Amino acid sequence: MPTMQTDKPFTYKVDEHLTDQLGVGMRVVVPFGKGNRLIQGFVTRIFEQTDYQGELKKVAAVLELAPVLNDESLQLAEWMARETFSFRISCMQAMLPSAMRAQYQKKVVLLTDQVSEELKAFFADKSEQIFDEQKISTNMQGKLLKARRQKQVEIKYLVKNKARAKKIMMFQSKLTEEIIEEEKSKLRVNANKLRKLLSFLRTHPKIALTQAQFEKKIGLTAGVLRAAEKKGWLLRQESEQYRDPRKNLMVGQTIPKNLTSQQREAVEAVLAEATKKHSTTFLLQGVTGSGKTEVYLQVIAKVLAAGKAALMLVPEISLTPQMVERVTSRFGEKVALLHSGLSSGEKFDEWRRIEKGEAQVVVGARSAIFAPLKKLGIIIIDEEHETSYKQDNMPRYHARDVAKWRAEYHHCPVLLGSATPSLESRARAQKGVYRWLHMDARINQQPLPKVKIVDMREEVPQSKNINFSEALLRGIKQTLERHEQIILMLNRRGYSSFMMCRDCGFVLKCPNCDISLTLHMDTHSMKCHYCGHEEAIPQVCPSCKGRHIRYYGTGTQQVEVELQKLFSTARILRMDVDTTRRKGAHTRILNKFGQHEADILLGTQMIAKGLDYPDVTLVGVLNADTALGMTDFRASEKTFQLLTQVSGRAGRATKKGQVIIQTYNPHHYAIQLAKEQNYEKFFRKEMSIRHQGAYPPYYYTIQIVASSPEESLAAKKMYQIYAEIRKYLSNQAVILGPTPQAVARINNRYFYQLIVKYKKEKQLFVYLDKILYESQKDERKGLKIMINREPLNFV
Ligand SMILES: Nc1ncnc2c1ncn2[C@@H]1O[C@H](COP(=O)(O)OP(=O)(O)OP(=O)(O)O)[C@@H](O)[C@H]1O
Ligand SMILES: [Zn+2]
Ligand SMILES: [Zn+2]
After folding, report:
1. Contact between residue 152 and residue 112 where contact means Cβ atoms under 8 Å apart
2. Which residue among 167, 581, 587, 794 is least packed, with the fewest CB closer than 10 Å?
3. Residues with CB under 6 A from ligand 1
């Protein structure tokens, strides 16, 4: 675990035999602390001499042959640690693929036979055992620690390096044409297999194949290959093979499209700045279906032609296989992918292809912003308003800020794109900090789809069907009859969101969190969406033993069942966290829908973005109000963005699209303006509300959270911080709180927070550094302090 005491460089001695090998930016294993346990660290400087007085410890091992962090990444880590109140080591680790992060393992080693029967049983005839705190009982742990004090056992720390290249065996031909003829003449008459091999090698000089490939191609078994190796025909050698995440994609080849005049203007504006090596930030605001992706692709093509590299971020990329396909079908082998859907081996290999300069276009989710491209010519962030670009654990960076830092380092532009920019970005464009590019027309001169708002307060009494309005049912029916496709969004997974006893009012809650359990029909259980707790569905009320249990709050599973009842022949696909847990599941569902093997795609907000299917002519939102209920000041912005994005999925090609939004708040401005799809009007309205409430983008915000298994400890700490922080603030700053968080307890920890809104407070940062430093001591008591600059979730 990184701690503040370790957030400074330590000096180590380097043995002679390592001096040639060692370089700045490499990972090393070093002994640390009193127990000299081994940990992974990074070399940040190398000295010929040191004036350190005490005795230096030695570097135990060097983990690789070449540095994994370069000059740029070391500087970036330094900046990020300061900006986001993080430890430097966390920043360095965040930049590397997970396979390169150290895995620690503890082992207990038996030192003598003179131990208790209980310990003997624990070791079970072995001299060592893995020390796993999760698996060994606390009682046993105590005994082991006591035995350690009595020098009966010893605890060893191991650093496991999982960063490994995948190796395969290849057989390479060593023969020239003359030798093949000569060898052939020497063969016995019945040596058919060997003759076959020689013929093959003659037509394929210098070929190298695996045994499996030889078997598949010409039906030769391992025995023949071994014989050929003995004769000196083939050379058997290990060679490295990249794990390729693109192998399941359906990739064709596409050529650049003829740009519309708006697209051309955007491309030219960005390229002009790229040529001048200006690190200008652009905001490309283009309505849904205006062809932003084509703009990105053509900018990338020009950047590559100038011998530079391109970095493109998309939100949770595994959700949009379509986007990956669009980029790979244009740039092929040059593309590297980095996202959470890849295995850690695949990520590691992609990372190294980038590092070695073998891939010049990187497409990835948030952490791909650290891709080790050396000559960056453009950084693109698609759907720049997405909150997933901010990491919510340490280091709490926003990819947009890192993009701007890297762009300055490389002297290249940043291109932010969205149909519904974040208020922050749009406001910067207004002030001229960003350059504003605008595309207000859809491709094919299609109008934006017509949006109808249905007031559910009037629907419910007449209809026995509470989830679907008359209008939406009619819409679905007609669309199915026309053999067109439908996207339905409901932002709640599971079957029902809570159960309540009608006799006594009891609500079944999670034992670890302050939140009700959700009914899941696929697993026949009640689940907590925060900590993963799962239990059986109660038959009677756990409180009064009554039998009148009711379920409330519709989730996607329930709608799927209802929908199938209503439209028995419709082919329905459901896409939510539960159906996409398995690797590649997103891609499979979307490909199926894309090939029109299903009529209805039903899902949570993960279906709102980026999908571009020509047959989709109806989009339905079952409940537009889920986000509005939040106490977050960004609730309206999030609702407007989500509704506009999902509406944009309809009528993108030649067929007209329509959208039906069901709501209990039909007159709310976020819903009304989403109906008009009028971003500009929404922007002005929301800005004036933010101005009145003194919220971002008019103010900066910092969130401080204290959490502990003991509620009083977390609360006390927060009030203490509250009392102190005021001394560091001018009277221009506003403090909200301290308050418990909206879900006050998660996984048996209590959360208290306060938020500072400010414009310019130099002293604040001095104090925050102090909190971060002091939080070390509290951590031993189980108290954790977290500092979050510009939090995106405000509850
Ligand atoms: N110049 C062009 N000529 C013809 N077709 C185009 C052109 N540019 C883009 N398209 C097509 O128009 C469709 C919409 O483009 P695209 O998906 O890039 O829009 P977008 O602005 O990214 O939309 P969204 O924000 O909704 O994801 C795509 O099918 C794309 O292939
Ligand atoms: Zn009851
Ligand atoms: Zn829980």
Report:
1. yes
2. 581
3. 257-260, 263, 286, 288-294, 419, 443, 610, 612, 648, 652
